[in-house]
Design goal:
This protein has 238 residues and is an all-alpha fold. It is built from 9 helices and no strands.
Length: 238
């Protein structure tokens, strides 16, 4: 084999490695996205459960907990397979992010037990979920930052900003659920709601810039922002 042929073969192997890396990244982002989604529902139900002293959302929280555990098991299986690879396709930075999330997952059962036994406040429970979801979002950010294909990078950046905006919307719902369950909002929670609404806009604007024309049209045509504004208005009048 000539030197030129050897170089072409090496280049082909690099392309294959890059494609494998993209496939691994897409699978991880998909699992993380699903896990975040069910955690957000569990967080909201847990907030109402705690604020109502167990009188509301007990059954719904149990259902969402099962969904979270199933999504967590699926994600753990994917990440365990990644950790056992002799030559992981993920980068060192992404692996460190995943390791940090793994440690947070080990504390999730402790949090759930504290919620079940009312040994934690609604705000503290929400903050604990927020911290875990923030670490999960960091995996998506790292995946976007390390993608080698420009089109894939652009898509992952768009996904990250959309997921971050959705997370802030979830925090807004959790905060709103807490206030409506108690029957009033104090100044601190009113301020927090307004801050979360403003922060969402700073996420959705970059999403529109990085997304495809189809994604931009979806964002422009959706009623998500109107819903956020209506909720903030209702809370300020509450």
């Amino acid at each position: 084999m000539s030197s030129a042929q050897q170089l072409l073969l090496t280049a082909l192997r690099c392309d294959i490695d890059n494609l494998n890396h993209l496939a691994t990244t897409a699978d991880i982002v998909s699992d993380v996205s699903q896990f975040i989604h069910v955690l957000q529902r569990e967080r909201g139900a847990s907030t109402i459960y705690l604020a109502s002293k167990g009188k509301r959302f007990k059954t719904r929280r149990a259902t969402y907990l099962q969904h979270s555990q199933a999504a967590e098991a699926s994600m753990r299986q994917r990440l365990e397979a990644l950790s056992q690879e002799s030559r992981p396709q993920a980068t060192a930075r992404l692996l460190r992010r995943i390791a940090a999330v793994w440690l947070s997952l080990d504390e999730l059962d402790v949090l759930r037990h504290a919620i079940e036994t009312f040994n934690i406040s609604p705000d503290a429970a929400t903050q604990a979920f927020n911290h875990l979801i923030s670490n999960l979002l960091a995996i998506v950010f790292e995946a976007a930052d390390t993608a080698v294909d420009p089109d894939i990078t652009r898509a992952l950046v768009a996904i990250f900003h959309l997921m971050q905006g959705k997370e802030l919307a979830g925090q807004e719902r959790a905060c709103g659920a807490f206030g409506f369950t108690l029957g009033h909002f104090d100044n601190a929670h009113r301020t927090l709601l307004n801050q979360l609404v403003d922060a969402q806009q700073r996420c959705f604007d970059p999403f529109v810039c990085a997304s495809s024309p189809e994604g931009e049209r979806f964002c422009q045509q959706s009623l998500i922002r109107q819903h956020f504004e209506s909720l903030a208005f209702a809370v300020n009048r509450w």
